[in-house]
Write a structure and sequence with these properties.
- By secondary structure, this protein is α/β, with parallel strands linked by helices.
- Helix content is 28%, strand content 21%.
- It has 2 domains: 79 residues, Immunoglobulin-like, CATH 2.60.40.10; 344 residues, Alpha-Beta Barrel (TIM Barrel).
- The radius of gyration is 23 Å and the shape is globular.
């Protein structure tokens, strides 16, 4: 299928949109012609920067593959010439899975500016710490200005509140100049509120399956498969992104002979053989790396064992975790470099009622375990200096009904967690919830930061082979010349080299 969306050419712009059930499609009063596979197309003498909507049988909608939504999800789409971006990263070698250390951040909460540009001054410090790649929580355009990004509506369009296409380009270029790769979190398991604007173009959704977040996407449709796969390729090709983190792939349903996420990985690797495809998958389901050709996947079991040992929380999905032997088994899990582990991430902090983090005492032990483990580590923004502010669940839904449902659903969600049953769950729609979640570096623990730096330097020198001994409340781990001893009863850790 040809490249979807509005793509500048030497003579103007090629418009292509998948709309298999439409009787007519036009843009700015100019008719498109029906081609093969339900794709309507025309090359028009319209330049980059043109704002447009498609008219389907008279009803106007933004482009499902819009490259930019400068006025948000209800505004027009804008033609973007991604080929005109100025890059200075010709010598950038790309990422190595063997050396990967990921730093997850939310663009809006990471800096005071809350933009792509606002993150740039901190890149050198992250590289000095020992990080090799930043991972951006989703930046596709979602309703409103504040949000985690997992309710994106226009998957191809960098969010205008963050700085749009130009802002993302500058951040990626600056990251490469600082010696950091960029991994982008993308969502192909559902589409956020306002999805009727996407469904107007064709059968994007199916009732054969269902997801926790909304209608399941119908990947039996070729046009829908191309919507996702071409999006993944766009980030790697046009924005020089070094890898993709695929959100909740257990909720991407496809009964085709080749799973859509296997085809996606194949085509992303064709665009750039060094690009990484990393999946978030439910616990101990290894289809991404064993069947779909993905490079790595998240392994939440390590976090769960560690978290319960340090906090004693056993509510909800933590119920079956919390033994030293269980954590020891996670240290031994293979293939180590293809399993991404953490002590904090956006889910494990933000999906708590108050969004509270580990204490600095707990964090020291947790970080030592994660960074000494042979698996690929992921840090969550601020943990390296013991950030004390929470990371809470925040939204800015522009549909009042969706806003109300989000508030009510958030409160219901914690009914099964005894520790949070009596908590006053923060209102996701309140701007103060977002402001509380912004990093505050004024009270940084520099001793803790130095500890992180030491651990990250050490892991670069050690072999991946690991020996683990589990006691009732203690764990001893050896890698080469180094030994880690963690005491979970005393919440202490000792590192010997």
């Amino acid at each position: 299928m040809p490249l979807l969306g509005a793509v500048p050419t030497a003579g103007g712009t090629a418009f292509r949109v998948w709309a298999p059930n439409a009787g007519s499609v036009s843009v700015l009063g100019r008719e498109l012609e029906r081609g093969e596979g339900g794709v309507w197309e025309a090359e028009l003498d319209l330049p980059a920067g043109t704002d447009y909507r498609y008219a389907l049988d008279g009803d106007e909608w933004p482009d499902p593959c819009s490259r930019f939504q400068p006025e948000g999800v209800r505004g027009p789409s804008r033609v973007v010439d991604t080929g005109a971006f100025e890059w200075r990263d010709d010598g950038w070698p790309g990422l190595s899975l063997d050396e990967l250390v990921i730093y997850e951040l939310h663009v809006g909460a990471f800096s005071a500016a809350g933009t792509f540009g606002g993150a740039i001054p901190y890149l050198d410090g992250l590289r000095e710490l020992g990080v090799t790649a930043i991972e951006l929580m989703p930046v596709a355009t979602f309703p409103g200005k504040r949000g985690w990004g997992y309710d994106g509506l226009y998957a191809y369009a960098p969010h205008p509140a963050y700085g749009g296409p130009e802002g993302l380009t500058r951040l990626v270029d600056a990251a490469h100049a600082a010696g950091l790769g960029v991994i982008l979190d993308v969502v192909y398991n559902h589409i956020g509120p306002g999805s009727e604007a996407i469904a107007a173009f064709g059968p994007y959704f199916t009732d054969r399956h269902e997801t926790f977040w909304g209608e399941a996407i119908d990947y039996s449709q070729r046009g829908v498969r191309e919507w996702a796969i071409q999006n993944a390729c766009l980030w790697v090709r046009d924005y020089h992104v070094d890898g993709l983190r695929l959100d909740a792939v257990h909720a991407v349903f496809d009964d085709s002979p080749q799973h859509v996420l296997a085809e996606l990985a194949e085509r992303v690797h064709a665009e750039n053989p060094r690009a990484l495809v990393i999946s978030e998958m439910c616990l101990d389901d290894f289809r991404p790396i064993e069947e779909w050709g993905h490079d790595a996947q998240w392994s939440d079991g390590f976090h769960h064992e560690l978290h319960v040992l340090l906090t004693g929380e056993r509510d909800g999905y933590y119920e079956s975790f919390g033994s030293v032997g269980g954590l020891a088994d996670r240290f031994r899990q293979q293939p180590a470099e293809r399993l991404v582990i953490c002590d904090q991430n956006h889910d494990q902090v933000g999906n708590r009622a108050r969004g509270d983090r580990l204490t600095r005492e707990q964090l020291r032990v947790a970080a030592a375990c994660v960074l000494f483990a042979p698996q690929t580590p992921l840090l969550f923004m601020g943990e390296e200096y013991g950030e004390q502010r929470p990371f809470q669940f925040f939204t800015d839904h522009i549909d009042p009904a969706i806003a109300r449902a989000t508030r009510e659903g958030r409160k219901r969600e914690f009914g099964r967690f005894a520790a949070f049953a009596d908590e006053d769950v923060p209102d996701p729609q309140d701007p103060a919830t977002f402001e509380r979640s912004k990093l505050d570096r004024s009270n940084a623990d520099e001793e803790l930061r130095a500890f992180y730096k030491r651990l990250l330097a050490l892991r670069r020198e050690l072999p991946r082979e690991v020996e683990v001994e589990a006691g009732e409340q203690t764990l001893t781990v050896r890698r080469g010349r180094a030994e880690l001893h963690a005491d979970f009863a005393k919440t202490t850790v000792e590192l010997r080299t």
